[in-house]
Design a protein that fits this description.
232 residues; alpha/beta; Rossmann fold; 7-stranded parallel sheet; 7 strands; 42% helix; binds adenosine-5'-diphosphate; binds magnesium ion
C-alpha cells in the first residue's frame, strides 16, 4: 500500500475544487504511471466535464473485495486520451452508504496517486473519513472575505483542526493582484501559511475544461512538484 491519496476540499462552493483536482490529476498522471481522479461530489460529475469523459466504473465497483485490477478493469476507468489517468465516478444512489475505509486501501494498492474531489455541502462520514485518511489535504479558498472567513470557520471546527494537525495545505485559487495591505489582511484571516497560489486563468472562467498551458497550469505543475518533492 504505497499510493498517495490527495484530497481537494473547500468549505465554500465554487472555489475551483473540481478544476484543481482535475488539473492536478492530469499533471500527476504525466509523472506517474498509474494515477486516478475520483469525483466524490454526488450531485454532478464536474470532474467528468473537465475530462470530457464520463467514466463507467462507479466507486461501488471499486469498493468490492473482488475488484482485482487488470487490463480489462483498467480500460473501464482509464481516460481515453490520457493513458495513465483513471477517472472514477461516484454512484449517486449509494452516496450515504459508501465507506471510505474500504475504497481508500484499494486506491492505495492500485494507484500511485488518487486525487479526490470532495463535496463541501455536508461533512458526511465519507468526507470526514477521506479528510482524516488522505496523505495530502489541499484546502481551497480565494482572497475575498466570504471565502476566507468560511475557510477560517472550517479551520476552527473539529474537522478543520484535525486536517491542520495532519498537515493540510491552504491553496489560494484565482489569485489576482492585490494591494499589499489588502493581501496582508487576507493572510491574517487565514492565519495559516499559504502553501500555493493559483492565478486567475481567463480561458477557464465559466469553462469546465482542461487548459494545459498558461499560468494556471504552470502553477498546478509547481504545486504537484512540491507535493512530490516532500515525498508526499
Ligand atoms: N484559476 C481559475 N481561473 C479561472 N477560472 C477558474 C479557476 N479555477 C476554477 N475556475 C472556474 O470556476 C468555475 C468553478 O470551478 P469548480 O472547479 O467547478 O468549483 P468547485 O468544484 O469548487 O465548485 C469553473 O468554471 C472553473 O473552470
Ligand atoms: Mg466541484
Amino acid at each position: 500500500m504505497t499510493g498517495k491519496i490527495i484530497a481537494v476540499y473547500s468549505p465554500k462552493g465554487g472555489q475551483g475544487v473540481s478544476c484543481v483536482a482535475s488539473h492536478l490529476s492530469l499533471v500527476l498522471a504525466k509523472k506517474s504511471s498509474n494515477t486516478a481522479v475520483m469525483d466524490l461530489v454526488a450531485e454532478c460529475g464536474t470532474v467528468a466535464q473537465f475530462m470530457q469523459f464520463t467514466p463507467r466504473l462507479h466507486l461501488g465497483n471499486l469498493n468490492t473485495t473482488d475488484f482485482h485490477p487488470n487490463s480489462s478493469s483498467l480500460r473501464q476507468v482509464a481516460h481515453p486520451k490520457q493513458n495513465n489517468l483513471s477517472v472514477l465516478r461516484y454512484p449517486e444512489e449509494r452516496f450515504e452508504k459508501v465507506d471510505a475505509s474500504k475504497f481508500i486501501p484499494v486506491c492505495r494498492n492500485y494507484f500511485d496517486f488518487t486525487v479526490i474531489d470532495l463535496p463541501r455541502t455536508k461533512l458526511i462520514p465519507v468526507v470526514c473519513q477521506v479528510l482524516a485518511n488522505a496523505d495530502v489535504v489541499l484546502l481551497l479558498a480565494e482572497y475575498h472575505w466570504t471565502s476566507l472567513f468560511t475557510l477560517r470557520g472550517f479551520l476552527e471546527s473539529e474537522s478543520g483542526i484535525m486536517c491542520l494537525q495532519r498537515g493540510a495545505k491552504v491553496v489560494i485559487n484565482r489569485r489576482e493582484w492585490l494591494p499589499a495591505d489588502v493581501l496582508l489582511e487576507c493572510k491574517k484571516i487565514v492565519r495559516e501559511p499559504v502553501a500555493a497560489e493559483l492565478p486567475l486563468e481567463g480561458c477557464l472562467i465559466g469553462q469546465n475544461r482542461l487548459v494545459e498551458r498558461g499560468r494556471f497550469f504552470a502553477s498546478v505543475k509547481k504545486l504537484a512538484k512540491s507535493l512530490l518533492e516532500k515525498g508526499q
